[in-house]
Amino acid sequence: MTTVVISQPMYFPWPGFFELIACADIYAHLDDTQFSKGSFTNRIQIKQPDGRAWMTIPLVEKGSFKEIRRLEAADPNFRSRHRDLVRQALRGAPHLDQSLDLFDTVVKHERLVELLTASVEESAARLAITRPSWLRTSDLELPGRSTSRVLDIVKHLGGTRYVTAHGAAGYLDHEAFEAAGVNVEYVDYSLTPYPQSHGDFTPYVSVLDLIANAGPGAGGYIRPRTKPWREFLAERDAQEGPKA
Q: Considering the entire predicted model, what is its pTM?
């Protein structure tokens, strides 16, 4: 069985995202889709003593109507500002130096798409996630959109199992995948607590926080598991309750 995961590039994503990555044999950065304002492509939260703050890369023309691979930073000085934010927010964390080293390694990339994909791949390496091979969908030159294109990519890569994040439940044609011989599963985030500064634990901050606080043991908090799509949708519908 070959497991494929496809997701848009993200900027130092939250730890749960790496549980999705850890499921993959092949991971495809969806870099040739249109940038969605408000997504996590160019922003993530950092936990500070007084709460969480957004760490956002400003985009030329706010990224309007551009593919992710064509995004440009509006101000190259975001690198130094973000480094200062990470250093101040995580000051006192036992492995801050490892987190800053990861940050410095990633932001050396000039092209924004290179920086975004590196923030995923380099972070996965620091978490000792070595399983997936990496590629970008723009290199496949497969046309189409939405669920049909996702299925075409999975089949092109020889995938027999597709693991995805929860947002796909709103558009994915699960039956079409099954008809093509591809099992669909959803990542079941563990939300595993790790030692964390500044009050009550939250998993919804950058992986930089996990690495700064857990260091070489950070990968031990990444615990991948999945649910078959029927089970996932049934549980989601039960939680949402009857529709009006």
A: 0.95
